[in-house]
Amino acid sequence: MTTYYVEIVCRDVNETNSEAVLRTHVDAIASAVFSLDDAAGASFSSDLDERTITFGFMISESGKATALRDGLVLAQTALHAAGAATRGWTDAYEFVSKTARSERELSAV
After folding, report:
1. Which of 21-25, 39-43, 105-109 shows the lowest mean pLDDT across its residues?
2. Nearest partner of 95 among 4, 6, 5, 13, judged by Cα
3. Residue 64: is its pLDDT beyond 90?
4. Within its chain, how far is the Cα of 92 from the centroid?
5. How many angstroms separate the most distant Cα atoms in the chain?
6. Is 95 helix (H, G, I), strand (E, B) or coil?
7. 56 dihedral zone (left: phi>0; alpha: psi -120 to 50; beta)
8. Cβ proximity of 55 and 42 under 8 Å
9. Average of pLDDT values for 70-79?
10. What is the 3-state secondary structure (H, E, C) of 3-65?
11. pLDDT exceeds cutoff 80 at 99
12. CB neighbours (10 Å) of residue 103?
């Protein structure tokens, strides 16, 4: 098993949401991510100007692809728990980027 830092970035695609509505959504998503059982040590940030949210998870898996999949599942779960429909989560938030770096890669930086 290798531990990976997985970062998932999503963007709110509902351009009609005011900053106040977006801030309320971001607060709900942050609360949801920090209540997930499998997300101990998670990080979360947002950029209201860019309408992005960034999830960070430390995930132990046998490979990067599996760690990325697990990170996406955690991000989707947090979005769903905060009120975005699981089936249509990409209707509310678009996937911007995903990365996974092993602890070895992180220590080399």
Report:
1. 105-109
2. 13
3. yes
4. 14
5. 44
6. strand
7. beta
8. yes
9. 91
10. EEEEEEEEEECCCCCCHHHHHHHHHHHHHHHHHCHHHCCCEEEEECCCCEEEEEEEEEECCHH
11. yes
12. 13
- Residue with token string 């990325």: 68
**What is the per-residue burial (b if ≥16 Cβ within 10 Å, else e) of 68-100?**
bbbbbebbbbbbebbebeeeebeebbeeeebeb
User: What Cα–Cα distance (Å) separates residue 39 from each residue in 34, 49, 75, 90?
Assistant: 7, 26, 10, 21
Residue at token pair 């692809």? 65
Please state the rounded mean pLDDT for residues 54-65.
93
Average pLDDT over the chain reads 86
In 3D space, the residue among 12, 6, 21, 8 whose CA is nearest the CA of residue 89 turns out to be 12
